[in-house]
């Protein structure tokens, strides 16, 4: 439903045209320094209207903490957060009163809820992700305190324009070791760290925008400095939780971790990540990282990295031959301005969902570590 | 942890060398005809030693229902099921007492549980999946009663040998409409429905087996006759639940639904699935199915289909330069016989996890439908 | 943590001195007529400052729906609700900076959260219950639609002043059949339906208020027109869920259902509720109702009724010899005005928690009924 | 449904006449010494046929661990456990084919599951509690390691025969400080530590047994050496979890903690537990313990104690005028031998459920303590 997590848990509410969107974050450790300033930056990165590549609706998205902090520190109690919906005029997409938008949630929401709402696919609005990003920012701040965990997502593909993201490529693995959010944002609106590819991607988006169309892309994310031992065997393997988290983001169609789909072609003898003893850190590490930092569902301390496929945006202004709700043939061209490509704005959402998965897994594992240390003694 | 689902819930137990493996399935509707004969076939399909392509250990895997049925019908109470571990001699892989197997769970289990068990990565054993398959068989029987739901998985890639699985290919979509388990099994041990490709796949597996190596593959799965309205918006979108379910299967590295990663390259105007009114069924359907049967996280009644990447098996007899637990360099060659490719045996597991996701989503949605029918009246 | 329920689920946030308190209610059926006017009455009944018996702080407690409704109907999406904390000046109980209040949560919150907050036992504030009452009002409206479910709580004891609440007393059982909220409120501030007892109760409260002390009481609650079959065998018996719900209300010390503690003295032959065929409703009913409407954890269609013990309020102005946080002996007399008895204000909270338990159980059972009807056919 | 707990979780299966009853315990810390010998004693205490006061059916109830241990130590993986149902002949209570037993679950199970099973109220069988007791024994062993937690339950009332259990009585509080299971069992079959009262209780049970009737009772339980800080504010207060756990035991009608129902009559100035600094343990303690060891839902380190009301057993051999399933008047006298009083056998069940609640709360709190220690530093 609208909750995610076990010990570190977020619950969200809100559609596009209601009073506000927001969330409750339960299980935040007490004593953490936290104000709106820790949360706003990622919300701002998520905001539309940031560049000529995204929709010009100017949402301000200012977050207000309602509860759970005192004098700039968390109390350990649930943190309520709220972002007002400034633009809640009814809406100007009147064709969508007649037509279910193809590949959008309009049709399926009626199947599910038995009636049509003004705002079409209610919670399918991108504004729903505000609560996730706000919650993720808190999770991330906690993870930084734990072990300086760093989470950096970037656009690795737009349409057929790709940067290299092969687990077999040492250059790519090196990039994962060092890439920062600042570097990702510095390459311009598309948030691809390879600036020459970034330029081509921008052109690709512009091309589809100019033809009133849209195009998809891939977001790749790396998580560094992850403690070992996170993730539960069997049903809640860490990669399963990450896949769940990523495929819960609107418009996603695929997830791959480590070597991913490419890896199936590589024989075990080359795909296996051999161990070596690392003198610097005094622990076993792996020479390669086809595993993507997770083995048997549990983190091994290497970088976690994965990619997420985002389809081409469903709402386009180009004419589409389709059917009305009533089954009559017709042509739909959505009014209004729409993002021709969502991947740059998806970056903070991917980062937020990653942080939520990790914070929850960490709390669960740390209680186990407590227990076996007690039991052993 | 070891439970999956909310209203239709399975909890599993068991490692490779303990007394038995099994599960408890809670939330099975009362009155369903059910005996061991409904469950055994999928367990038998999962079993090793079925062909020259899989490991020759001869596990018999006979399931015994412990509770929850009476006179061949379910009572509505939890169904306990148990499969004895016949082969529970200590084990003969003594090198693995010294070496953590690369890309296996040996190392991470120690990180998680603080000590090394004889059976290495305990629950990472493939025998853990027996409980899932048994539970899935019950879910499937229920789904058949609901709307004749059909779930068919098959191998679509081994190493670099692929059959076509593009959402853009009408032939592939047609195959998804009709393919049966019988057809899948009929093509021989590899379970690829395209018999010419199947032959090449078998050779690919044999090549790696003969060089004491292993190779990965892709399993594709279609689910037909799914009721509309299943899946929860936001965090529990149906594709998110399926991704979670699939990435929880050992050795998986990726998941894609509908057009998947390929779809990101297709502009929205071509990627969107336009609606039409279907006279035969008297409802809106879509002309294409890039969505893979799910829009906004909710089923639209079209075929659900997705693919899952399985990496090359980690345990190989080929020598690998790696490190001992103690950090000393050395060479590991795993003794014993190991599956050179797991995809054919993964088929019933993928089917089982699909059934579990659907049965749970269905029960949740049906309570909502009850409620809004009441509220409306 | 801060969530309650499975399919009908409320999550709350808020302490006494933060910006607002509120909740998210997930799983509300779509299509239900709902505005703030449906929620405000119970919040107003919960409010302090309603009579000379309760604290004069004048909180207005106006609720604002944030999401999940459109044109006065629910969408099926989560309903966010918010009540501003108007009075959030720091607080004037400065002694409690030095002293943990005896039998309050001040001390245990430090044990739990590792540091002391200004507002002492944060979530132990009575304002936390606002979110529950708001959510309960929605649950109740749904239950009324389902089967005209009626939930009425009243004060049955204050200190040693009791009205009869014995399961053996036909008069009491008759009262349970008919008592309404209007009748409960009509007897004056104490909300005991027996007006002669109510008068004595008021005097009892005044006596303790005048001596700067406090006194406890018992709230009894009846739920009528409950569908049969609700509640889950084993761990989630309906009475177990009700006990959980009631003991989660601040200041509660006990729960009993049906014949309760008194019932242990009655032999089975008299305690058992014999069946008879009721011509009017054409179904089996019971002649007596020692069971309190639940047998084997499952509703049988008779009235559910139970009682909840509330201890004497911990915060009193009377001097108490106790210890400072630092372990120094001293005398604490809490400043400010405090409720000398909480039972009248607890009435809507008990009703709300009852409604939440029932709405959740109902949704779960209705999916089962759907399933067995399908399976049978 | 059939699971209890979050991080330390038990799932049970089994009715009276199926192959076996059992459970899966998930979340048991790795490294704990554990064999069947740790579990059998409490199962044996739960067993019928232990004395002339209980039913003579001779169930042996030998438990077999299926998984999750190796060389006598837990692995951290789920522990499957199984007890065979030796006596699974159909049953000899043929009247109950015609009559729903009054105050039993026969009628409500049909309402819930839509059909009648041979074994009547399936999971309402006392054999269901075997899984709980087995799981509780593991939880208890863990808690002993943590802080030498001691859990001792005893019978404090049978019919109208009571021993003193008032929170106001220093003698009773002293008893709670020291009472052991050995002492409880030493007083004979009734398990009341006050031997003079015990004798009267035995007579009370015999009286009702001889008249083919049954009688209820109260079980009181104390938990010593509990760490502070356990229990979650708001919905999962520790007393709410205990109430849930206790009311989930068959035949329970009430729960009270600390001063309980009696406490409502005591003014706050006497009911509050004042603090003092305890030199011996160097921490704040309370002089009295009306709170029952929990304040604001969180443990304060004092003894937890509570009482649970068990109604008179529903199945009696005495004739009862009631109705058949078909609505015809008739007289039911249950064949077979039945426990005239269940309280002595309920002792290990109450202890087990207590241990399960505590182990789960402890694991949750320890992850929080880890987190705030990290965050502070």
UniProtKB/TrEMBL annotation, chains A, B, C, D:
InterPro entries in the cross-refs: Chorismate_synth, Chorismate_synth_AroC_sf, Chorismate_synthase_CS
Requisite cofactors: FMNH2
NCBIfam families: aroC, PRK05382.1
Family per record: Belongs to the chorismate synthase family.
Naturally occurring in which organism (per UniProt): Wickerhamomyces mucosus
MF annotations from Gene Ontology: chorismate synthase activity; FMN binding
Protein name: Chorismate synthase
Bound cofactor: record note: Reduced FMN (FMNH(2)).
Gene Ontology cellular component annotations, sorted alphabetically: cytosol
């Amino acid at each position: 439903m609208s909750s995610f997590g076990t010990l570190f848990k977020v619950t969200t509410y809100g559609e596009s045209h209601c009073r506000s969107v927001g969330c409750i974050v339960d299980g935040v450790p007490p004593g953490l320094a936290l104000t709106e300033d820790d949360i706003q930056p990622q919300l701002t990165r998520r905001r539309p209207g940031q560049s000529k590549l995204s929709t010009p609706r100017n949402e301000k998205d200012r977050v207000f903490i309602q509860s759970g902090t005192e004098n700039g520190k968390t109390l350990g109690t649930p943190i309520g957060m709220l972002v007002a919906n400034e633009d809640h005029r009814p809406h100007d997409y009147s064709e969508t009163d007649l037509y279910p938008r193809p590949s959008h949630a309009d049709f399926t929401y009626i199947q599910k809820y038995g009636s049509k709402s003004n705002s079409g696919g209610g919670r399918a609005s991108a504004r729903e992700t505000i609560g996730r990003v706000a919650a993720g920012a808190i999770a991330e701040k906690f993870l930084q305190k734990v072990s300086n965990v760093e989470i950096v997502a970037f656009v690795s593909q737009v349409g057929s324009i790709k940067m290299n993201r092969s687990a077999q490529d040492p250059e790519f693995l090196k990039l994962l070791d060092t890439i920062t959010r600042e570097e990702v944002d510095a390459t311009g609106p598309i948030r691809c760290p390879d600036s020459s590819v970034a330029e081509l991607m921008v052109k690709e988006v512009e091309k589809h925008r100019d033809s009133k169309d849209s195009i998809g892309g891939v977001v790749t994310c790396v998580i560094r400095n992850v403690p070992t031992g996170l993730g539960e065997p069997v049903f809640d393997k860490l990669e399963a939780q990450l896949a769940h988290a990523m495929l819960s983001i609107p418009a996603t169609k695929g997830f791959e971790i480590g070597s991913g789909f490419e890896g199936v072609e590589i024989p075990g003898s080359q795909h296996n990540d051999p161990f070596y003893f690392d003198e610097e850190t005094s622990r076993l590490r792996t020479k390669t990282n086809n595993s993507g930092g997770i083995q048997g569902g549990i983190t091994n301390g290497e970088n976690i990295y994965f990619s997420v496929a985002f389809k081409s945006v469903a709402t386009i202004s180009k004419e589409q031959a389709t059917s009305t709700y009533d089954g009559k043939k017709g042509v739909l061209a959505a009014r209004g301005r729409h993002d021709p490509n969502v991947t740059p704005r998806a970056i903070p959402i991917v980062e937020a969902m990653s942080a939520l998965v990790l914070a929850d897994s960490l709390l669960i594992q740390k209680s186990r570590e407590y227990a076996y240390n007690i039991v052993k003694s």
